[in-house]
Amino acid sequence: MSCAGDKPRRIVVIPPMPELPEIETVRRDLTDRILGRKIVRVEVLAPQIVEGDADAFASALAGRTIIRIDRLGKALIICLDGAVILVCHFRMTGQLYPVGEEPLPSHTRAAFTLDDGRTLVYRDARRLGRLEVVGDRAQSVILRNLGRDALEDSPSEDELAALLGKRRTAIKVFLLDQRHITGVGNIYASEILHRCGIHPEEPCLNLTRADVRCLIGTMQDVLSEAIGERGTTISDYVTGWGRVGDFQYRLRVYRRAGEACVREGCRGTVQRTVQAGRSTYYCPQCQERRRT
DNA sequence: GATAATGTTCGATC
DNA sequence: AGATCGAACATTAT
């Protein structure tokens, strides 16, 4: 990190921020900045990021006023007047933020001109994200597979125990499966399991009652803490639309392969493995396998 | 050039 | 009905 005042700060838009705390941060920012604004014009530059017909998408939003912004897991739900709902999922590289009267940034995939002259920009380098307009949440393709929100609708101990059930699937893979609980992604899954001392490969059915209790509490703690830090930003970018997050400084295992475990009294070394095609980070010393 | 990246969906194969 | 795995989507950074 550079020291304040030394080098000129680069103004670069921050990289994508896809898990629950990052989306919640965007939700709060956008609520502050665009609530009550009317969308006067919609331009779709990359039709594949829109679910359904891009022209229908654009005309459904034109003339609508933004009245509330909600979130379910990693999905942003922008409610407009006339029962119009804009559902957004950023996947890996999506971003949504207002800009002034200036040229659109690179990788702008959709642009919503607001009634105050600003433009709400959807950027997405990889074009993996999706935008969708529906009249009712139940119609949403983006929302249809999502389970309970990890923060606002967290399961009770009994409920999580029931969800884990007799599954043989690894607990880390379960946490990434958004059909059960939605909002926890690859960073926070590793962090939660490390804090609970649970091995990421542990089959769900082996978890004890104490493990279940720890998972629920730690999930709340980690997500809340991360929201308090405005999420995790990997890279030291500065942004023109909001500050970067700071939770990266609190990460204990994510991207720390080969480093000493930070748990007090633990002499282990953080390992990286791959589960379901995604990197998992854990400490073999303090995340021991349960006896079968 | 190879590899990995905070995500989801779909189809094939158990 | 499940689970499970790989591929696909597509670009950037290291």
Which features characterize this protein?
292 residues, alpha+beta, 4-stranded antiparallel β-sheet, disordered N terminus, DNA-binding
How does this model look, in words?
The chain has 292 residues and is an alpha+beta fold. Helices cover 23% and strands 22% of the residues. It has a four-stranded antiparallel beta sheet. A hairpin with a 4-residue loop joins β6 and β7 (119-124). α1 (20-34) runs parallel beside α6 and α5 (186-196) packs across α6 (209-228). The chain is elongated and about 60 Å long. The termini are far apart. The structure holds a DNA duplex (14 and 14 nucleotides).
> Largest beta sheet: what is the strand line-up?
1-6-7-5
What distance lies between the first and last C-alpha atoms, to the nearest angstrom?
46 Å
Helix content: 10-25%
Number of helices: 6
Give the helix/strand class: alpha+beta
What amount of the residues lies in strands? 15-25%
Give me the count of strands: 12
Weakly predicted, low-confidence segments: 1-16, 236-242
Q: Helix and strand string, N-terminal first?
A: HEHEEEEEEEEHHEHHEE
Mean pLDDT level? 88
Describe the largest sheet: 4 strands, antiparallel
Instruction: Based on Cα principal axes, name the global outline.
Output: elongated
Q: What integer value in Å does the Rg equal?
A: 20 Å
